Amino acid sequence: MHAWPASEVPALPGQGRDLRIHDTATGGLVTLDPGPVARIYVCGITPYDATHMGHAATYNAFDLVQRVWLDTKRQVHYVQNVTDVDDPLLERAERDGVDWTALAEKETALFREDMTALRMLPPRHYIGAVEAIPGIVPLVERLRDAGAAYELEGDIYFSVESDPHFGGVSHLDAAAMRLLSAERGGDPDRPGKKNPLDPMLWMAAREGEPSWDGGSLGRGRPGWHIECVAIALDHLGMGFDVQGGGSDLAFPHHEMGASHAQALTGEFPMAKAYVHAGMVGLDGEKMSKSKGNLVFVSQLRREGVDPAAIRLTLLAHHYRPDWEWTDQVLQDALARLDRWRAAVSRPDGPSAEALVEEIREALANDLDSPAALDAVDRWAALQQESGGTDIGAPGVVSRAVDALLGVAL
């Protein structure tokens, strides 16, 4: 599966700072010190309705991570999946009377268009669940043969008790885990499971649903968590730098994925930091496909909204807290974009060196994009009030905003 085109990232004078970021597993800030190649895995979409603002906010956060790393002169090995077979996709296809593969291809193509318009840097590897199945099957077989998985009526389940570190990502108690498992794709009430929290690794073929040859597992399709584990281990290996996604993935998805990988390899941890973006709400509720309370990037683009303004709307909110989408936050971003473009349209202005360092420091401090925007606002206001004599400063600002914030002025 192919990703989307990469926008050019301008080179800036000097060098960025190492990233300090909030790690869900430790509950505090950690300073990441990757090697020459920083490794990041971000969980992708289930393509039955893309791309709403919750998606955009998540991918914006991890795009900033990449830009901070690139500014430190590192390379970035970024991997993202597409869950192109799963119950929600099949259910939507059946509801709409369309082929599930056609629906997945259509929505994945739209997602690519949205990511391109928003200048999100693409992953080096963009892998669908279906194409990953040949690599998933042997992992499930290994877990089963090692006693870390078991069969129940043809389905294969992972035993969470096989990983001594289970619970170390989300730090939830058993009651909270069971509740979230039921809400987020698990089946804690199924009779016969060794532990209600045990997640499915391989679902035996169901009549009327797609299935694949699973070797000794029989025909079926993979569970959600093992999909990402197989892709991450194949392309990044254990101990990669950041596992990222929305805050709703901390449990069960990232918790279970970490346990799968740790049970498979005997190594700990799967990722050095588990980083989670907050949820975007609309009308007082989390924006979600199931609720239908969505604002789509593609719809805003069709209405003529500049993608740079959409991105500025996202950047105006720190990535970790939940926040609410309103017409006003978009209007504020449009006004800010106009001010910035006016400020960089002149050949000279106030010195930009300190501003570049302010942006770098803000982003290195747990991706504090609102602080970075405030710094550019101050420079733009000074340009408007009194101008300056630094020839080329507006060009430096324009390149810095593009390189570090992904906004083309």
Descriptive notes:
- There is one protein chain.
- The protein is of the alpha/beta class.
- It folds into 2 domains: 20-277, HUPs (Rossmann fold, 3-Layer(aba) Sandwich); 300-405, Anticodon-binding domain of a subclass of class I aminoacyl-tRNA synthetases (Four Helix Bundle (Hemerythrin (Met), subunit A), Up-down Bundle), CATH 1.20.120.
- The chain has helices at 53-71, 87-96, 100-117, 129-145, 174-183, 224-235, 250-265, 297-302, 307-315, 327-343, 353-364, 369-385, 393-405, and strands at residues 20-23, 28-31, 37-42, 75-82, 125-128, 149-152, 155-158, 200-204, 220-222, 240-246, 271-277, 280-282, 285-286, 323-324, 348-349, 390-391.
- A 5-stranded parallel β-sheet has the order 5-4-3-10-11, with helices on both faces. It has a 4-stranded antiparallel β-sheet with strand order 6-7-8-9. The protein has a 3-stranded mixed β-sheet with strand order 13-12-14, with helices on one face.
- Strand 3 (37-42), helix 1 and strand 4 (75-82) form a beta-alpha-beta unit.
- Helix 4 crosses helix 6 (224-235), helix 10 packs across helix 12 and helix 11 packs parallel to helix 13 (393-405).
- The two termini are 31 Å apart.
- The model has no long low-confidence stretch (mean pLDDT 96).
Terminal-residue CA separation: 31 Å
Strand count, sense and barrel status of the largest sheet are: 5 strands, parallel
Alpha-carbon Rg, integer? 22 Å
Query: What general outline do the C-alpha atoms trace?
Result: globular
And the CATH topology of the largest domain? Rossmann fold
Q: What is the helix fraction of residues, given as a range? A: 40-55%
CATH architecture of the largest domain: 3-Layer(aba) Sandwich
Summed up, the domain count is 2
CATH superfamily of the largest domain: HUPs
Strand arrangement, major sheet: 5-4-3-10-11
Mean pLDDT reading: 96
- Low-pLDDT runs of 5+ residues are none
> How many strands in all?
16
Which class of the largest domain in CATH terms? Alpha Beta
